[in-house]
Amino acid sequence: MGFKENEGSGRTTSRRSVLTGLAAGAALAALAAPASASTWTNRPPQATRQRERELLNEGWRFSTGDMASASKNDFDDAGWTDVTIPHTWNAQDAIDDPAGYYRGPGWYRSSLKIKKQYEGKRLFMYFEGANQVADVYVEGAHVGHHVGGYQAFSVEITDQVANVKNGNDATIAVRVDNSHNLDIPPLSADFTFYGGIYRNVWLVVTEPVHLDLLDHASSGVYVDTPLVNTSAATIRVRSRVVNDLDTEASFTVQNIVLDDRGNTVVQGKSRVTLTAGETREIEQTLPTISQPRLWSPESPYLYTVATVIDGGARSTDRVDSPLGLRWFSVDAATGFYLNGERYPLRGANRHQDQVGKGNALTDEEHVRDLQLIKAMGANVVRLAHYPQAPAVLEAADELGLVLWEEAPLVNEITRTEAYTQNSINMQIEMIRQHYNHPSIIFWGYMNEILIRVPRPTPEGYIQSVVDLAQSLEDVTRAEDPYRLTVMACNRDTADRYNTSGLTAIPMIVAWNLYYNWYYGNLEGFAEHLDRERANYPDRPLWVSEYGADTDSRLHRVDVEQLPVNPESGRVSYQDQSIEFGELFHETYVQAINDRPWLVGTTLWAQFEFGAENRTGSIPHVNQKGIMHPDRTPKDVYFFYQAQWLDTPVLRIASHEWQHRAGTAWDATPGAGTQPVRQPVKIYTNLNAVELILNGTSLGVQDVGDSRTAVWDVPFVDRRNDIVAVGRDAGGRRVEDKVRITFAYNAPQLSDPSVPFERLALSAGAIVQYTDPHELVWIEDREYTDGAWGAVGGTTGLAGKWTNGSPEDPLYQTYREGMSAYRFDLPDGRYEVRLRFADPRMTSPGERVFTVKLGNTVLKENLDLVAVAGASTAHDLVGTTEVTDGQGLIVTFDALIGLPVVSGIDVRKL
Predict the structure, then answer these.
(1) Residue range 426-430: average pLDDT?
(2) Is the pTM value of this prediction over 0.90?
(3) Catalytic residue among 448, 532, 586, 612
């Protein structure tokens, strides 16, 4: 018998390739048209667009850590790393094996060439986002400090560059710090707090009389629509104008509403005089627009409000603001209304990152995300859990997507004045910066804020949360009396959201619900909604999150609800198969469709995203996204298309399950390979669909409101070509196809009519796992005569990632305490590969056992932690001869503790 330890496993897929996806191009092209480069490449935010400006994303150097004098002009940064903005220092360390990621200071340095045209003007730097505390230095002088990682900020640098000669460079240095800070929300969250200057940086140049860039980094212009209906619309414009001259200045403030072709619709004009250094808000109510074109997701018509400061000889400043004319309301009994019509909001949550890149996305990537959401048929997006890039807001305006935007208060609060003031300031910044976007209808300010209440709970803690919520509600309504407020709550067995009075504060109460993923059964979702409505009939309700983690490598033939521990009420095993995720979404959507009174629903989440502390089958990633990190869709994406689109949708929900395995357990020995029946599901909005297997029709099924149909398909060994065919409303043929490779395992391994080649078993698993080489590892089972399986032991799922391998799904399941695995193989020579990763022990000497192939020792005194480390992949490979019809017995002899194994792969040589 031969033996190898931890060699020859053939694992070639890196952790990063699993995280970032494998094939994006064709899928993206099929789902959404690419963003036009001329339209979206580094498009300036509206606060800067009509002004003289320069994008400052190139030519930066970066280093982590703090260093004395890094802000000074003469500091030597030659050894630093050259980077381009957007940039984060956590793109890779947040997805590697070692736990944790760098949270601390980092420094950026660059230069700004001073031009003659800047003379006599005001210069500002506009940062779209830096996480989470930023200090800006120009020519060695500190010019600005900003707290908050998700809002823009601006600083004036006029005085600091005044002594730099034309043609020379001014030195810029920025210190950014993403350290945990008890005074800065979010304190904790299920997403990675990437550090860096991760959004665009701009130089903005204005005349001395200009619209205010320093009012919380807003555009200085606020556009309201106090009255909108089908026949008329009234526009109010408030403009903050600054006179930075040393003398009095007289000028005209003009607001012009332009249609989408640039024609003037209405306008207003005011003559204003400001004293030296004065800032004043100028308010104008414009003439009524008759028969306005309305904004909606179906027809996102945009006017433009051009605000011009006219000093006489020339216009000294101009800001253009988007104007979408719409009106809306909510009713607890009947839901959401847009432009006078009942309008159910259906959509998704979106985080701003892409695994492998962190949060340093380009504008094109932000826009692509919204295009994909729109292509799904969604009409609303919740921007979780923080304000997002200007490009996101503008894309929502133009594509027609309603937005819920929220400040980043997540999980818990700190009871300090600094935390309260930072929270309020973040809310104000968000509202003022994004005030003019018609896509925004909902302002939020807390997410699951009671999920991490300190234990023991300090006296008055809950009341402090309530008081902060009330302050944020008051601030929001004062800043914007026209929009709606909302708060997202988690299921709380103590019902503290309701009993504390917290849910009485916002205009809409939303629930993040995960019945049968974290707790309870699937039916609990509908029961929760009905209970809330019965108890609070006057309260508008929203489902703000629902979803289940899935992995395209994991599949379950007979999917069912997850088991629940009767004592704790918690789910005792999380099935991350694609098929359970589909069952989850199908069940929730049916309950949603049965409750038209819901204001809105937003699935969690559109895209998988980085969450460093996650320990699922793809570590460091929240896998609830219905699209992969590279934006390729999971099959369930098409379930939502079938639900929400009118254009024809037909998808065989097996594109992610193209390699299957199975056994016809009732087959007669000697009859050769037999068909194995397994379900194949389609998602469609067609009335009827026919399914064809290898040219033979399996029948036509009518499709109802569920938008699903399932066939029991008799898969044959090897190749299975499946075609789904239907007709659209015009009679045109619609089809989808997929090829599935099926591996047949005979129920009697020694059956000569089915020559044995290979069998890979995933110990402890209730799902099939497809490895990087497209080998299907089948579900675990107890041994039966003539077949294969375990002798004794119990199964488990490790709640941690596996070091040293991208094949976490294989190593995370295990069987423990078995005496053996038996394989009743025919006589011959075999290679046996065993996969191990200790799921629980952390120190050498806690678990020791001996492994035998037949009567021969493969590895004596195996101590996984000693030879590999805790939760670390370790393989044993051996060869053995099976003779005399005895089959193969893999024996595990316990010496200390219980033996454990994660996978056994037997291959005929």
Answers:
(1) 98
(2) yes
(3) 448
- What value does the mean pLDDT take over residues 354-382? 96
Residue 40, classed as helix, strand or coil, is: helix
Range 258-280 average pLDDT: 96
Strand order in the sheet with 794-797: 794-797, 813-816, 900-901
What are the tens digits of pLDDT across the range 810-841? Answer: 999 999 999 999 999 999 999 999 999 999 99
Q: How far apart are the C-alpha atoms of 741 and 578, rounded to whole Å?
A: 18
What pLDDT digit, counting tens, does each position of 209-232 carry?
A: 999 999 999 999 999 999 999 999
**190 and 622 in contact (C-beta within 8 Å)?**
yes
φ, ψ (nearest 5 deg) of residue 307: -105, 115
Name the token pair of 785: 């005569």
Distance CA 871, CA 801 (A): 7
In our burial notation (b when 16+ CB lie closer than 10 A, e otherwise), range 6-41 reads eeebebeeebeebbbbeeeeebbeebbeebeeeebe
Q: Which amino acid is present at 873?
A: A
The neighbouring-strand residues paired with 722 are 693, 738
Identity of residue 792 = G
Query: Which tokens belong to 375?
Result: 């292509």
Q: Maximum distance among all alpha carbons in the chain?
A: 107
SS3 content of the chain, % helix, strand, coil (to 5): 15, 40, 45
H/E stretch holding 479 reads helix 461-479
CB 800 within 8 A of CB 871: yes
Tell me whether residue 448 is one of the annotated catalytic residues: yes
- Coil, strand or helix: which one is 516? coil
